Amino acid sequence: MSEDCLFCRIVAGEIPATVVRDEARTLAFRDVNPQAPTHVLVIPKRHLPNAAAVLADDPTLLADLFAGAVEVAASEGLGDGYRLVFNTGESAGQTVFHAHLHLLGGRGFQWPPG
Ligand code: 5GP
Ligand code: ZN
């Protein structure tokens, strides 16, 4: 756990979150500022700063994040219409440096995203 990391503090229960899925190695909770009717963040419970670090540490953990997102998409009734995003680095819009997979759904999306 990183003491000054927001998402580590959510994992530790120090900051409240609306948890939708709690697995051994991953946690899924609703984004506090949702950009779609369904906007869930799936994170590793262990502190790793981004998706590349998760891959380098343990590729099966990256698979667990995707599996968690796909399972939440199903439980949210999104069918096969949803978007999965890892913002990686400040230039790509990453603001929290604890890896998180965005699951967005329940509305249409533009491509390219801008
Ligand atoms: P990023 O911009 O790093 O890809 O995404 C960070 C996400 O975390 C944003 O969508 C933001 O709304 C969300 N977020 C920031 N602080 C909190 C918080 O305290 N609780 C929850 N549930 N989400 C947060
Ligand atoms: Zn962290």
TrEMBL record:
PROSITE patterns cross-referenced by the UniProt entry: HIT_2
Ranges for domain HIT come to 6-114
SUPFAM superfamilies for this protein: HIT-like
Q: Which Pfam family, any one of them, does this sequence belong to?
A: HIT
Which intervals of this chain are the motif Histidine triad motif? Answer: 98-102
The superkingdom listed in its UniProt entry is Bacteria
Read off the Gene3D superfamilies from this record.
Answer: HIT-like (3.30.428.10)
Report the PANTHER family cross-referenced here: HISTIDINE TRIAD HIT PROTEIN (PTHR23089)
UniProt protein name: Histidine triad nucleotide-binding protein
UniProt source species: Fodinicola feengrottensis
